[in-house]
Amino acid sequence: MEGFALSVLHTGSSPVHRTLAVILAATVGLQGCMFSPGQHLDTSDLPHKGPPDSPRFELVPITPRLVATQKAARIVETLPAELTSYAPGPYVIGIGDVLSITVWEHPELTTPAGAQQAPDANGRLVRPDGRLFYPYIGEIEAAGLTIEELRNSIAERLARYIESPQVDVAVTRFGGRRVILTGAFGNTGPMPLTTVPMTLPAAVGQAGVGGGADIARLIFKRDGQEYRLDLDALNRGGAELDRIYLKDGDQLHLPTSDSRRVFVLGEVNSPGPLSFRSRNMNLTEVIGSVRGLRQETSDPQAVYVIRGVQDPERDTAQIFQLDADSPVSMVLAAHFQIEPQDVVYVGAAGITRWNRFISQLFPSATFLSTGRGVGDDIDAITE
């Protein structure tokens, strides 16, 4: 094509034709240059280590061996022994609990405000000092006792006034012992612990998980220690999360996934950032989330995963390349794990870059036909 343009340039054609030939020759020459319109990833100089003060990077093909190595190096999440070793005992009454105390055959003690009143009106609140008042026996310590211990204490004191008192104690409102939930839970704040022991999955299920929650980074605080739990990996690994029982004072914080994203660029149907809400996210899931590659413009041999490093001057960044021309490559993509902050880039086909260059050089396809028409008119006038 370049030779054709030069031959036209040396013929006896009109100046307009020669001008168009010059433009055509220039564009053909530019096609072989590094410049092309739109985003383009040039990997001609990969891999390289470069001078000491330049970024270090290497191009790594995604192969079955690489996928197997990645799988072997993956850290298996396990439950901390300090969390699973705790076994809840009988419920211990706490400050803020409301107790229903029943003395059989003595309604004046059981419901002094009347049977028609709300349960709280007849309940006994455990005050901040841990004590409560009860008729005949006066002040009695309640906080820190089990329900059975408080029942026996009340019955023993009432025996001075009532023959063989039959006493029952129940908690009608829990407010003394609780865990605190913060972050991206659907419902945050204090969650009371009841007479039924609460497990970690039960608390998460009861609170709900918000849309932007990152379940791979749950922060569990207990007794001054902080544990980071990947709920997604633990569930996938078959860990028995229901072995973790919550106790008074535990804190659960669920961060958002805003700071952990995967950025998808290039020739895909819906480029943009994707929230990284779990540890296990593979390349197929990423490509599927952006509705796949653009069939008309993408280069299936130019699917890259760019993984940065903390210190570009000292560490070697990696650029993984997938040749998606073969169906076998989709099997590899389904096993290649993406990490937070990875950049997935799909390059454009060579003809696509060329067409975009032409479209920028010539604002519309009618430019050539218009120029040809003008040239014909000039030729007609000069003849």
From TrEMBL:
Residues 178-253, 261-346 form the SLBB domain. It comes from the Bacteria. GO terms for molecular function: polysaccharide transmembrane transporter activity; porin activity. Keywords: Cell outer membrane, Ion transport, Lipoprotein, Membrane, Palmitate, Polysaccharide transport, Porin, Signal, Sugar transport, Transmembrane, Transmembrane beta strand, Transport. It is a multi-pass membrane protein. GO terms for cellular component: cell outer membrane; pore complex. Residues 349-378 form the Outer-membrane lipoprotein Wza C-terminal domain. It is found in: Cell outer membrane. Residues 87-172 form the Polysaccharide export protein N-terminal domain. Pfam families: Poly_export, SLBB_2, Wza_C. GO terms for biological process: monoatomic ion transport. Belongs to the BexD/CtrA/VexA family. This is Periplasmic protein involved in polysaccharide export. It comes from Azotobacter chroococcum NCIMB 8003.
